[in-house]
Amino acid sequence: MSDQSSIKVLEAHQLGKQVSSPEGSLTILSAVSFDIMAGESVAVVGPSGAGKSTLLALLAGLDLPTEGHVVLNGANLSELDEDGRAILRAESVGFVFQSFHLVPSLNALENVMLPLELAGHNDARKAARKIIEKVGLQERWSHYPAQLSGGEKQRVAIARAFATEPAVLFADEPTGNLDSRTGENIMQLMFDLNRSSSTTLVLVTHDNNLAARCDRVLSLDVGKLVSDTGVAA
Predict the structure, then answer these.
(1) Label partner for 66 (CA 20 to 30 A): which of 18, 91, 106, 107?
(2) Backbone angles phi, psi at 101, to 5 degrees
């Protein structure tokens, strides 16, 4: 864990999320509270429909809770407007999704450069080349997503997510579309980057072996936090 481990980078305070449905109000999350410290790796687990992806969206400020609030890197997300949350995400957050979300018209290097350019980085190309090398794609940087394997696409996605050195990296089933060996290599890469940077890793996964490699496991069931286990302890 990072030397910054005494700093809270994420605070969830009594989070609740309700949505309307034809049957009436549906509760997705109820009274979920926890803190995540800088440098931690945290897995969010639970059965389908437990509220895992909804929780990730609330923590990242992609959605707002019906009750409670999230503090991300010192900022209360409920006190920011949509633009304010977008700026905070650009400065503090990286994302890795199951389906990669690469821009098809940009090559691997340009995909990694994109968040750096949006953040006004002085030399986006040089910084992107450095992290492309770190994820082992220096021979493939000029290839477009359609020319890359699933594992290579996810490496580009990880490089893009880590490029801006975010305070928190959110990963939603990052190995879900990969075979087990490729998935293992991808997760090793994510843990290596988590250790070598000050980035905090929060990942949603159905893979118990992957969850067990994290510092902590948050278990959700029917919208409630049912356990918070420090696996590394």
Answers:
(1) 91
(2) 55, 40
In whole angstroms, give the CA distance from residue 114 to residue 105. Answer: 12
DSSP state of 147: G
Residue 144: how many other CB atoms lie within 10 Å: 15
d(CA 171, CA 202): 6
Relative orientation angle of helices 124-134 and 108-118, to the nearest 10 degrees: 130
Chain segment 147-195, per-residue pLDDT in tens: 999 889 988 998 998 888 889 999 988 888 778 888 888 888 888 888 8
- For the stretch 100-143, pLDDT in tens is 889 999 999 999 999 888 888 889 999 999 989 888 888 999 99
Beta strands in 85-136 (DSSP E): 93-97
C-beta neighbour count of 218 within 10 angstroms: 24
Please tell me the pTM assigned to this model: 0.86
Q: Measure the CA angle with vertex 187, ends 65 and 135; round to 5°.
A: 110
67 forms beta bridges with 16
